[in-house]
Amino acid sequence: MPGICPPWLSLLLTCGLRHRGQDPFRIVGPFVQEGATVADVGCGPGFFTGPMAHLAGETGRVIAVDVQQGMLNRARNAARRVGMAERIDFRHATDTDLKLDEGLDFVLAFAVLHEMRDAKGALEQITAALRPGGRLLLAEPTFHVHKPKFTETVRLAESTGLYWVDIVDIRMSHAAVLRRD
What we know:
Elements: H1 10-14, H2 16-21, H3 24-28, E1 37-41, H4 49-56, E2 61-66, H5 69-81, E3 88-92, E4 104-110, H6 119-129, E5 130-141, H7 147-159, E6 162-167, E7 173-180
Parallel strand pairs: 1-2, 1-4, 2-3, 4-5
Antiparallel strand pairs: 5-7, 6-7
């Protein structure tokens, strides 16, 4: 698919410099509690997936989805290295099916919607998968998605039944938290 970061570039997505600027525990920590059921949509090489599994704990559940099998393989290997692979359900998504279960407490869509052919369809699936009160952290990189486009994406999410809750400060990203009624 055009515009999607290839697996061979994933080293840039997990490098130490990124950990300093976008600490995954700081970013998802406020949203993922012990026992939570969560999803990492467009998980890539698993930068957030392992930390989400750690935070959800042994009683929680993490679904990691990506359209590229190569990225899922890298995410699975990264999770194995930190002892979290058994807590994560890795799913190969398609352009039209994110492979999400219903009843999710939290969904992370980090730097992924701008790569999707049908962002509205993806947001509809996310909204349907969230339990009432469930939250979506939507983040897009400022160097790919300018503020007006991000605002448009938030409005698109609102049109699916989510409502805007807050803006989150994430380095080099536009980010918003939305919630399902």
